[in-house]
Amino acid sequence: MTENPVRKTRSYRPGIWLVIVGGLFAIGFAIYALIAEPEGTAGPLWIVVGWGAMVFGYGVYRVIRGPSPLDDPRAGTDANGR
Fold first, then answer.
1. With the C-alpha atoms ordered 7, 8, 11, 14, is the resulting torsion angle positive or negative?
2. End-to-end CA distance of the chain
3. What does the pLDDT read at residue 19?
4. For residues 59 and 25, is the Cβ–Cβ distance under 8 A?
5. How far, in Å, CA of 5 to CA of 80, rounded?
6. Quick one: how far is CA 12 from the chain centroid?
7. Do the Cβ atoms of 22 and 52 come closer than 8 Å?
8. pLDDT tens for each residue of 9-66
9. What pTM was estimated for this model as a whole?
10. 5, 6, 7: which is closest to 68 by C-alpha?
């Protein structure tokens, strides 16, 4: 099989922005939800906290796993180049 030389020269973790953005959303909205309604739950704000936590978790998975063989460096996927 021929290797794509662009993939070998690039050393990056594809999920780092997912970790940053998901963590900021989860922490930010959790703090806001607790400040907005400290006695009870703030309803829909906890949904955003959950989505932020899921994005954070997927980002951590992508950081640990590394680049996928289906990731095309020019965006999209390259399923035919496997």
1. positive
2. 8
3. 94
4. no
5. 16
6. 14
7. yes
8. 555 677 899 999 999 999 999 898 888 876 766 678 888 899 999 999 999 998 888 7
9. 0.68
10. 7
